[in-house]
Design goal:
By secondary structure, the protein is mainly α. The protein contains 15 helices and no strands. Bound molecules: manganese (II) ion (MN) and fe (iii) ion.
Amino acid sequence: MTIINNSKTDPNKILPMKYLWAREHYKNGVANNWTPEEISMQQDIEQWKSNSLTKDEKRLVLWNLGFFSTAESLTANNIVLAVYNNVTNPESRQYLLRQAFEEAIHTDTFIYCCDSLGLNPEEIFNMYKGIPSIKAKDDFVINLTESIFDPNFKTDSTEKIQKFIHDLIGYYVIMEGIFFYAGFAMILALKRQNKMVGIGEQFEYIMRDESIHLAFGCDLINTIKTENPEIWTKEFQDELVGLIKKAVELEKNYAFDACPNGLLGINAEQFADYVEYITDRRLERIDLPKLFETKNPFPWMSQSTDLTKEKNFFETRVTEYQTAGSLKWD
Ligand code: MN
Ligand code: FE
């Protein structure tokens, strides 16, 4: 039994499970259950409308709402229309359903932010067309993940499995693992200065979800690689590293464009350094050589993604959900 190309096993028979990591990611996702309406936007609304934010700070918020509002539905579509079809293992599919639900929550978050701040939804949801640094990222991912959108696509040869891995790297490693992270760092840096804390908290929840999506994606990629070792040629690895390099350039351009003058105490270069730092972490995770060896300019960011730190980081709701979920009646 393998994770793809499994016509012999019944996709509805989930037990016994073979890939326990998929189950683990599912449970971690459930433990981080949340909805945007649980987070108050009152202080954000006051800051936004009283003009207590600088022009640069507003730009940073708008660029990130603009990028994420469409990026979230783009990933949801990828999962449901392309990835799900080709991953035949039941426990992995169970995780993909959870992920799709979480992407719906994320899209809902941007609807909620637009509503609360009184932003023009047309403007925000069209930024992916009008802002070149955002359009470049979206176009890159769309081109990268074209092949498996073909309804007749099958992973029935070495070359096609390589195509599938190439596309999975486009979704999970590049989109969710690189293209989301300059934005996360910017919004969380703003939150640390006590600005737009509602959006900041929503981004913390999203980032926790995304860190699980990314972990699942890497485990999926690594499992396909282990089960089909013939695909992992030097040439193919070089091709993937080339794509990741290009993605890093696009993400840095986006960071400079969203935040040209940095933030109080942070210069724009540091956001670019952060992109290099996290890219090395992604490369390590899928056994590709590191590219940068850049030092982490924002050690505080790992506190927000590290799932083991949830108790002291997420003071309230997440902990309560987890406690409720593990209550024992005696
Ligand atoms: Mn998402
Ligand atoms: Fe995601």
